[in-house]
Specification:
The protein is an alpha+beta fold and about 250 residues long. The chain has helices spanning about 20-30, 45-55, 105-115, 155-160, 195-200, 220-235; strands spanning about 1-5, 5-10, 15, 65-70, 80, 85-90, 95, 125-130, 135-140, 145-150, 175-180, 190, 215, 250. About 25% of the residues lie in helices and about 25% in strands.
Length: about 250
C-alpha cells in the first residue's frame, strides 16, 4: 500500500508527512471490519436452533396491548396494557396475571372469574400490539435503533432499509445478527453476507428476524483504515483545526 506523502497544513498549502512507515503499518494491520473476527455459529445450525422459537405458541408479555371482549356483556369490554409486573386490572374481578399465558388460557381464566357475577361470562382476549415484536439495528446505518415488527416480520436486509440504509463506511459482506433462543445461556451469533443476497447468488442469507434480534452492520476495512489514520494524525502529530487537515487518500 502507498500513501500520499502530503497532508493539508494550511489553506492553499501542503506539508510533508513524517513517520510514513509507521502510518503504513497502521493501515496494513487494520482488520477486515471494525469488529475483527466473528465466532459465528454456522448459518444452517443457527437456523435449526432458532426453529423452536419460530414454532412456539405466543405467550403474553409485559406491555402488550390487549382487548378483553365479552360476547354477551359488551359493556364490560376493555382495552388495557399489561403492566410491567405482568398483571392486568379488570372491572369486578380486580387483578389477574397475564404475562406468560397464552391468550386462550387467559380468556378461560377471565371467563371463570366472571362466572360469579354473570350468567353468560364468556370472554376472549385479543392481542392488539405485541410488545416484544421488535428488532434492533446498530452500526453503520443512518437511523440505528428499534424496528417495530408489529406490521409483519422483517428480514435482515429489510431491517437495514427500515433503519435508513447503510452509510458510506459500511460493509454488507459481514453483517452480524445476535439472537437469544430458549435453553441457551449464550446468544447465537450469525454472520450473513447480504451482498450475496443483492447479487442473487445466495438469497437465503437474507434471514427472517425473530423478536429481539440485534442486527449489526460493521464498518468496512477501508473505513476502519481511514479512521485509524485520522486518529494517528490528530493524536500523534498534534494537528489542530487551523492546520487545514483534509484527509488521507490510499492508493494501491
Amino acid at each position: 500500500m502507498k500513501l500520499w506523502r502530503h497532508i493539508g497544513a494550511a489553506p492553499g498549502g501542503w506539508a510533508t508527512l513524517p513517520a510514513i512507515a509507521t502510518v503504513c503499518c497502521l493501515g496494513a494491520c487494520t482488520t477486515a471490519t471494525d469488529i475483527g473476527t466473528v465466532h459465528a455459529t454456522p448459518l444452517a445450525d443457527a437456523l435449526a436452533l432458532s426453529k423452536p422459537v419460530q414454532d412456539q405458541a405466543y405467550v403474553i408479555a409485559p406491555t402488550d396491548d390487549l382487548t378483553v371482549r365479552f360476547y354477551f356483556n359488551p359493556q364490560l369490554d376493555e382495552d388495557l396494557r399489561v403492566r410491567p409486573d405482568g398483571k392486568i386490572s379488570l372491572s369486578l374481578v380486580g387483578e389477574l396475571t397475564a404475562a406468560g399465558k397464552a391468550p386462550a388460557a387467559l380468556s378461560d381464566e377471565i371467563t371463570a372469574s366472571y362466572a360469579r357475577y354473570l350468567a353468560k361470562p364468556k370472554a376472549v382476549v385479543l392481542v392488539r400490539r405485541f410488545a416484544n415484536d421488535r428488532a434492533f439495528v446498530a452500526g453503520e446505518v443512518y437511523r440505528p435503533g428499534l424496528i417495530d415488527m408489529n406490521m409483519g416480520r422483517e428480514t435482515a436486509l429489510q431491517s437495514i432499509a427500515s433503519a435508513g440504509g447503510v452509510t458510506d463506511n459500511a460493509t454488507l459482506a459481514d453483517v452480524v445478527v445476535v439472537r437469544r433462543v430458549p435453553d441457551r445461556d449464550q446468544p447465537l451469533v450469525l454472520e450473513v453476507n447480504l451482498l450475496h443476497v443483492l447479487d442473487g447468488t445466495h438469497p437465503d442469507e437474507d434471514i427472517a428476524l425473530l423478536p429481539n434480534d440485534l442486527v449489526y452492520v460493521p464498518r468496512s476495512g477501508a473505513a476502519a483504515t481511514n479512521l485509524a489514520l485520522k486518529q494517528y494524525f490528530w493524536n500523534n502529530l498534534n494537528l489542530s483545526n487551523s492546520a487545514g487537515f483534509t484527509g488521507v487518500k490510499t492508493v494501491p
